Amino acid sequence: MNEFSRILELYEELLAKVKLQEIQLESMREQTATLSEAIQGQAPQQENQEAA
Fold first, then answer.
1. What value does the mean pLDDT take over residues 5-32?
2. DSSP characters for 1-52?
3. 1: pLDDT confidence band, cut at 50, 70 and 90?
4. Residue 26: how many CA atoms within 13 Å on its side-chain side?
5. Mean pLDDT throughout 26-43?
């Protein structure tokens, strides 16, 4: 039974780490989307500045 408890403990630790990584990944996706929107908004302005 002790081995089973250890396996369960390890499983719970891994599950917690995976959930944390999922949260971090979602945060990175949101940051990427925000930066992408900002870059897309700046691109026409840069082209206009270069033309001037």
1. 98
2. -HHHHHHHHHHHHHHHHHHHHHHHHHHHHHHHHHHHHHHHHHHHHHHHHHH-
3. confident
4. 6
5. 92
